[in-house]
Amino acid sequence: MIPIPAIDIQNGKCVRLQxxxxxxxxxxxxxxxxxxxxxxxxxxxxxxxxxxxxxxxxTTVNLSAIEKIRHKFPESILQLGGGIRNSSALKIYDDxxxxxxxxxxxxxxxxxxxxxxxxxxIEKIILGLDAKKGYVSxxxxxxxxxxxxxxxxxxxEDLPIYQxxxxxxxxxxMMNGPNFEETKKLADVSKFPIIASGGISKIEDxxxxxxxxxxxxxxxxxxxxxxxLNLKEILxxxxx
Length: 240
Known about the structure:
240 residues; alpha/beta; TIM Barrel; eight-stranded parallel β-barrel; 11 helices; 12 strands
């Protein structure tokens, strides 16, 4: 299981939120590329990028910050989400050399585009499932659907999806542990590898997640920025 550091970008800065609430913004790096440099220096080979403004507006807002990270660290694996809702956005990021594209809202609200994206960018699309109490949320977590995450993935079984990121919104940024029950439930029914996200705060959380079959990674955010997790230590322990 690979620990993956997260860099959330808002107004060109590296920030962390609580449950996606824009009023809870805390800035950790004025320049997101400095955050990338910090985590890469500690051994990260893969970075999770989120354009928070793009997620809210449905467009590529923080492109310049993302370009800077890509150009400074050409060898690093970058997965990117936030506002990728049409083919032109995908092309921009593909031309830039982003390794994996995270599509969330489109999987529920624009399935034609989602299916086309999966067929065009084979094994490069990551399905981002963000959920509250098991139900999928979209548009930067501002809308909660009546669709269960476990039901939604069954629709996509035949698509060449690379992985699924499952985020429990009520846990995100709260540092009180992941939703183990829902994460395991999804991992048990998914044919795709799962990356756990939301609430990871201590090494025991990663230990427990690593015991589940089909959990291939864990996104670590605030716990790294608040130094309750040490990236070098957890990479040595879990990235095997």
